[in-house]
Amino acid sequence: MVASSKLPLLLLLAVGVTGKTGKLGPKQSATNYGTNIMVNAGDIRQSIDVEKLTTYLVQHIPHLKAPLTVKQFKFGQSNPTYFLEDANQLKLVMRKKPPGELLSKTAHAVEREYKILKALQDTPVPTPKVYCLCEDRSVLGTPFYVMEFLKGRIFEDASMPQLPPQERRACWLAAVDALTKLHSIDPKSVGLSDYGRPTDFYPRQLRTLSTISQTQSKVTDGATGNSVGDIPHIKDILDFFNRNLPKDRTTIVHGDYKIDNMVFHPTEARVIGILDWELSTIGHPLSDVANLCHPYSLPYFKGAANSGFVGHEVEGIPKLEEVISAYKKGSGVDATPDWTFVSAFAHFRLAVIAQGIASRVYRKQASSESAHRTAALFPVMGELCWSTIESAVPSSKL
């Protein structure tokens, strides 16, 4: 049986959102089929030299024709993301490392994104085509890469309220299917044997994340002098993880596998592109499964970022056990025995990521309009991580 965790009301209030829980049924399946990606592109918030960018791309993408129209997507908290369109209406997407001194060497690795996307081009894994990587800082100040723009649907809300129940279910199972395709790829067969260490994924992640979190916690706001602070219960959390490590497994892992990091076909229930590969590596496949299933542990709050399914009956969304079963059917790996560890670890990892966004807010480096809201989530994720452990493990073993 897969254990579920409960989040105290106090934590919900800490997020600063309001809403009503309820049931989502067929009558609420609207004509708006998913988020039109272009709705999220607008004015440039972090300026770039469009003339230099145009000159570079004309030299490296033969069929591109000047001038370029450039807009910035509202999403992309770690790496600023831009929509590009040339004179022939060729549509592209650019991902750029943010400016300034960065605390983490891995959290903004656009070079790694480009490398893995290029490696997966001719595999069954749905990915956008990549065109070029620029590491010459004289062009835009930091490295960037350019890929094709995928016309499709991005569901910012994992409950997919725009869809009828049958399609909602089919889209979720399609996300599981795309993940099993990724995990079936032999890293050596696509030139990724050096993409990460093949053993001890979770021990290495624990060391890295705890070090990053410690650094992030000490960042101060220049105006107020306040520091970001620690993730709640971090000492107890790390102690539990170190004493309960799962059996080692090795695959290519996405690192941030979730519904809103996928582009679905405009009308069909299938994934046509997996996005945001900056945290990808060689690691434990269940880390991706747990991250995909994160909404099953979070409460539902209408209109809130990172809203989940708890307290919100959604027709068509498969049960957590069904998702785990579908993954086992496609991959041969059963997540159930290690679920407490991998799900709690997913919460902890997101706490560190949110804490990182908080540190960038404090350093005036945030690159997303929603960064301040996401930054407030790191204490919530820390509490959720600990409650997941407490609800599944006898107190005598904590």
CATH topology of the largest domain: Aminoglycoside 3'-phosphotransferase, Chain: A, domain 2
Average of the residue pLDDT scores: 86
Q: What percentage of amino acids are in beta strands?
A: 5-15%
Number of domains: 2
Protein name: Aminoglycoside phosphotransferase domain-containing protein
Signal peptide: 1-19
Organism: Planoprotostelium fungivorum
Keywords: Signal
Task: Give structural notes.
Residues 69-296 form the Aminoglycoside phosphotransferase domain. It comes from Planoprotostelium fungivorum. This is Aminoglycoside phosphotransferase domain-containing protein. The protein is an alpha+beta fold and 398 residues long. The protein has 2 domains: 9-34 and 153-397, Aminoglycoside 3'-phosphotransferase, Chain: A, domain 2 (Alpha-Beta Complex); 37-148, Phosphorylase Kinase, domain 1 (2-Layer Sandwich). It is 36% helix and 13% strand. It has helices spanning 9-15, 50-60, 110-119, 137-140, 165-183, 201-217, 234-243, 285-292, 320-331, 339-362, 371-375, 378-392, and strands spanning 22-24, 35-36, 41-42, 69-73, 81-85, 91-96, 130-134, 144-148, 153-154, 251-253, 262-264, 271-274, 281-283, 312-314. The strands form 5 sheets. The chain has a 6-stranded antiparallel sheet with strand order 3-4-5-6-8-7, sandwiched between helices. The chain has a two-stranded parallel ribbon with strand order 1-14. Helix 5 (165-183) runs parallel beside helix 9 (320-331). The longest helix is centred in the last third of the chain and has 24 residues, at 339-362. It is globular and about 65 Å long. The two termini are 20 Å apart. The model is unreliable at 4-34 (pLDDT under 50).
